[in-house]
Amino acid sequence: MSLIKTQLLVIGAGPGGYAAAFYAADRGMEVTLVDREPDPGGVCLYRGCIPSKAFLHAAKVLSEARDAKELGIVFNEPRIDVDRLRTWKNDVVSKMTGSLGLLARHRKVTFMQGKATFINSNTVSIQQEGESRQEVQFEHTILATGSRPVSLPGVPDSPLILNSTTALDLTDVPPSLLVIGGGYIGLELGTVYAELGSKVSVVEMTPGLLPGADRDLVSILEKRLKTIFRAIMLTTKVVKIEAGPQNVKVTFETADGKTSEETYDKILVAVGRKPNSHDLGLDHTKVKITPQSFVAVDLQRRTTDPSIFAIGDVAGEPMLAHKAAHEARVAVDAISGKKTTFEPKAIPAVVFTDPEIAWCGLTEAQAKQENRTIAVAKFPWGASGRAMTLNRTDGLTKLILDPDTKRVLGMAIVGPGAGELIAEGVLAIEMGSIAEDLTLTIHPHPTTSETIMEAAENFFGHATHIYRPKKT
Ligand code: FAD
Ligand code: NAD
């Protein structure tokens, strides 16, 4: 066993951890980054954002080819080479993680592969391949150990029962698939499997898909999902799962207590994630854990132990890669003594279904819950020239405004490419923009970004492509 001394140790090399390590190195710190994987990337690159988006791109190619019929272009039935598709996805992942490894070396960040466990507030033990173990002593550490999938009680151990990680391995396309959970992962991976040819059913225990998003947007997505999914069961619970050698029998219970049974070739459990705050030896430090198992942090991402910071999924909701990367900079700045705080006005959320749903800032549902008076301005994509030319008028752009100051408080978009468009909303909110700022900004034509400008124009009653009869 050897002892290494480092100024900053970053534990976990996901989008939070590697962003922190690289930024700290750029700012002149001497940095060690540790992860169990051979290269930086974390869940996001190895088994999250990137592989799922690669598959969703393939799904989009399939759906666009199918929809082309309406334009008079007819392709033959697609032949899907699952092995080739998986290899392509794996190539995307390894190119990206390999490049991050290279970026770490260029920056002189010491990358160590192994599992870190705290010995005390300034020392961790790194268990490496085999028996080999090293101790690292640090001035500060940033914990960025991420999260893992939640399972359901009573779910049997079977290769026919998948979580997001095994679903992304894409060993085959099962003839039928039940997705438990109508959240981000359930709908994104459900879309992938449905487009690849599985008969996908989704069961969600709450009354609607994507509980965090506004209903007017979700209903537009749900309408299209109904055309690719075999069934969407809402307000329904899975009460029993029995795995056989060939298939899985599931018992459902609806709100009125009625039960029913159905058999599927595979099941995907996507009911949320939990923070990796256990199994780290944090009891040897002064770090406090919240009742939800997150590491408790202040606005600078400092834990209750002065030498330990925490960022990303392990430090709280929302569990999103861009939130982790932003916190990384706050924590590094705090360590280097800069005045800084994590107080974003808006963190964008994007669900990469088809159509995509994206929102940021205040939602209508949240305003209602908080009893806040808001003004809502909408622009339906049926009135957008660009949406017409894409043959995709199933979209809506919505602004949540302060009725007195006309400040943009929130933005929500459903439609193809909504995830790219929402960045304008985040900037508008961060800059304290008012509705006029959006109307006075020249948006390129023909693009779906014009729907943001026209939603703001509609707030004033003069959107060019919407006719509103004058009140007499
Ligand atoms: P992680 O990315 O979870 O990385 C943590 C790292 O820490 C891991 O590499 C792990 O090996 C390492 N680690 C843990 N414990 C130890 C230890 N003791 N010692 C050493 N290393 C350790 N977010 C988005 O913003 N956009 C998306 O499109 C998106 N898609 C997703 C799709 C899926 C299927 C999933 C599962 C998640 C998705 N997410 C998405 C969420 C996103 O992946 C996470 O929010 C993000 O990865 C969190 O980053 P992080 O740095 O906190 O940790
Ligand atoms: P989620 O919280 O988004 O959705 C889980 C869903 O499962 C919820 O709708 C919940 O009501 C439902 N549910 C819970 N228990 C259930 C049960 N017993 N039966 C039926 N339904 C049940 O969680 P997820 O989809 O697992 O994703 C985890 C997290 O990963 C997300 O919250 C998000 O932070 C992140 N993620 C982000 C993206 C993205 O940014 N595009 C993509 C994937 C994952």
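^ nicotinamide-adenine-dinucleotide complex. The mean pLDDT is 97. Residues 152, 180-186, 188, 203-206, 211, 237-238, 270-273, 318-320, 350-352 surround nicotinamide-adenine-dinucleotide (ligand 2) (CB under 6 Å).
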